[in-house]
Model the fold of this input.
Amino acid sequence: MEFLYSARFVTAEVWFLLVNIGYIAIYVLIRGTVFAIRVWRLFHARREVRERFERHAQETVEDPDGYDPHSNRPILSREDRKHIQELVSLVRLKIARGALAEARVHVVAGLSIDKFDRDLNLLLASLYEANNDHAKAELVYKDLIVLYAGDPEIYLRLARSLALQEKYEIAYEVYRRLLEIDPENFEARELFASVAFTLEKYEEAREAARRYLKKFPANIEMMHLLAESHICLEDHERALEVLEKIQNLEPYNHDIRSLIDRIRHEHASRSPDIV
Done:
């Protein structure tokens, strides 16, 4: 009993209490630290999600189905758009080097990301044309016109494809529509004049040739077409004017000299007063 009241016992009891308090303090510290780490991770994760959402919102306009409600096209991330641009550049390089099979592989890869991409579809059509498969190119252009109704290049390519297949009536309508969209497209006007002449629409061919020659007055081929249109319309005076201009540019062209003589003779026979 004396030991329970001795100084050694009291000292041991104090140390025992201190050890317990230390253990409790360490336990509380550890649990508090774990809890703090969990709370920090939770808030950090929420912030990460919020930042990712905001970043994605800057790149695209969100749609529940992942499609643009106006064009019904898939919404692409910035990375996808960049990848498609890189593929377009790569395909153009492959085509320039004549590696058409490799170019087609990259086109297909790009279209698997966005089957409506304008540049990739134009490149696909050009690959069809390189293989003389103008019918497939025509289908691609027709699909693109639905998506890009006001794009002059697509109209121009479609009309050229149609003309190469000798579908002149449809090509004529496409060129006419293109010139309504883009009246200053002189490449289209030149080809429209040629198709109109082929269809024996000489008045429209003549008008298109005239407008083209106002911009490019020294174009020999268009001058020939204009002269032929005048002749078919029996406008011999204007035909002679154009033929004489051609002769000045081609003084050794004996066919033009013979044609001028023939037209003068026909014109004189219909106009007795002309000496």
Notes: The radius of gyration is 40 Å. Confidence is low (pLDDT under 50) at residues 59-65. The first helix runs from residue 7 to 59. The chain is about 75% helix and 0% strand.
